[in-house]
Every structure is written in C-alpha cells, then in structure tokens.
Amino acid sequence: MDPKLVKAISAAISLATDTPFRSTQQAPISGGDINDAYLLSDGQQSYFVKINSAAKLDMFITESQALAAIRKSRSIRAPQPITHGRSGAYAFLALEAIQFGPPATQSWQQMGQQLATLHRTTAERFGWHRDNTIGSTPQLNQTTTHWSEFFCKQRLCPQLDLAQANGIRLTQTDALLERAAALLADHHPDASLLHGDLWKGNTSFCNDGTPVIFDPASYYGDRETDLAFTEYFGGFAPEFYDSYHSAWPLPTGHDQRKPLYNLYHTLNHANLFGGNYVTEAQQTIFRLLA
C-alpha cells in the first residue's frame, strides 16, 4: 500500500476511535471483485479496510450507512463501520475486523431466525433515503408505496437501460416489464430492511459460530428478494431455510416471483461481467414470458 494512504487511513481511524493507531502491517485480503482489501494492524488493534478510486467514496459511504442500519436493527451481526474518507487518488472504508470461523451446530438455524428478525424492521415506503450501489453498479432507490412500481422502475428498468447502453442485446424486454407488473400487481409485501446482496459470499460466521453478514446493498423492499438471492449460487444450508420459514413463513406465490427477483441480479452480473450471464438473463426472460 502507498505509505501516504496508510498514514491517512491510520489518522482517520485514530480520530474516529479516539485511540492512537498507526498501522505497521498491511496484509492483502483476497476474495473481492470490486475493491482491494487489507487488514491493517499496529500489533494490537486491527481493522479491515477497503480501497478503491477516489470517485467511489459515495459507494463506501452508502455501505457504511447500510451496515449501521443493520446493526441498529439488533437482529444479526454485521461489521461495525469505523470511518471512511479520501486520500489523493484513493477512497477508503475502515471496518471492524472480525475473525471468521466454521459454523457451529446451530449457526445456520440462527442465521435464518436472525434474518427474519432483520426483515421485521420495516418502513412505510419502499426504497432508501439515497441511491447506493449493487456491486459497483448504481442502484436507484427513489421511494414509493407501491412495490410493483418500485421493482419495475427502480430495479429492472435501470438494469435493462444499462444493458442496452453496454451493447447487450436482449429481446422482449417490454413484454417482460408488462409481465413483471402483472406478476406483482396483487402482491403487497411489507417494506422490510434488506441486506440487498445476500449470497453465500457475503455471509460468514464468527469464531464462536455467530452468523455475520456484510457487503450490503440495503434498501426497504420485499423480503422475498433476499431469500431468492440466497439460492442463486448454490444456496444456503437447509437449516437456514427451515428456520426462516418457521420464524416468518413466506406468502403464497413466492416460488413464481423468485425468478423475477433474481433476474435483477442476473442483469447486474451481465452488465458487470458479460459472458454467460447475458445468456442466462435472456433465458430467464423467455421463461417468465412462457
């Protein structure tokens, strides 16, 4: 890491925590596609730090706000945001460093119960107090009281417009939006606080087996969207789903809405990475229209 950046981050952490901190060790952390990550330590204290270009500071600010909202719900563990800022060509986000470990016997069950508790934190309107990002893609969050309107206009339409701008040719998109509006017309969910990007890679367990979630793209929306995306990359343990459904059963029709909700993420991956995600997006559109 750039020594000037390390010094700036150390100073920001010291100010935020009111405790002297000067990083003497910067260990790279692998696993992310969007940011560079490091574990900064002075031999006694450690912090998890994300780095990106200075233009990405707003992305870090909104992530910090989402983590704070999840923590405020007192439902499920999330890293404590420490500070964020900009130094030269870089933006940074410093978080509590959590030591991960394997799940304990009841960990997946506990995660399901705690996610249901998170989702019981509700608002009067769908959306968020500001736009944020899903991965590095802008995620629009203008609030509304109508879920169908929100999902079509704030989720599907921006991704479809971005795909067109990226030269991705998808067919029958107008019919898709009509189908989405019809599928959601009589569905009136609570506006639940969501993680927003809940796949297995954004979850883990502390050393004592306590579930933890991170890298959120939070907003208030249909809780089914979080549950749907947990299944996208192979799914969570069966105990997770049993526990969630026991705590708060999903309403009739959730299986029919699941592919529509996951299409949002497929479109986002198509816009970010291209390749097979473009084919998958088109095939999902065809299936929804069949």
Describe the 3D structure.
The chain is an alpha+beta fold and 290 residues long. The chain has two domains: 94 residues, Phosphorylase Kinase, domain 1; 183 residues, Aminoglycoside phosphotransferase (APH), C-terminal lobe (Aminoglycoside 3'-phosphotransferase, Chain: A, domain 2, Alpha-Beta Complex). 44% of the residues lie in helices and 18% in strands. The protein has a five-stranded antiparallel β-sheet with strand order 1-2-3-5-4, with helices on both faces. A hairpin with a 2-residue loop joins strand 7 and strand 8. Helix 4 runs parallel beside helix 8 and helix 6 crosses helix 8. The radius of gyration is 20 Å and the shape is globular. 39% of the residues are buried. The mean pLDDT is 97.
Keywords:
globular; alpha+beta; 2 domains; three-stranded antiparallel β-sheet; 12 strands; single chain; 44% helix; Aminoglycoside 3'-phosphotransferase, Chain: A, domain 2; five-stranded antiparallel β-sheet; Phosphorylase Kinase, domain 1; 290 residues
Distance between the termini: 52 Å
Unreliable runs, pLDDT <50, ≥5 residues?
A: none
Structural classification:
alpha+beta
**Helix/strand order:** HEEEHEEHEEEHHEEEEHHHH
Query: Overall mean pLDDT score?
Result: 97
The total beta strand count reads 12
How many domains comprise the coordinates?
Answer: 2
Radius of gyration computed on alpha carbons: 20 Å
Helix proportion: 40-55%
Strand order of the largest sheet: 1-2-3-5-4
Return the CATH class of the largest domain: Alpha Beta
Main sheet properties: 5 strands, antiparallel
Strand portion, in percent? 15-25%
Number of helices: 9
Q: CATH topology of the largest domain, what is it called?
A: Aminoglycoside 3'-phosphotransferase, Chain: A, domain 2
CATH architecture designation of the largest domain: Alpha-Beta Complex
CATH superfamily of the largest domain: Aminoglycoside phosphotransferase (APH), C-terminal lobe
Globular, elongated, flat, extended or rod-shaped: what is the shape? globular
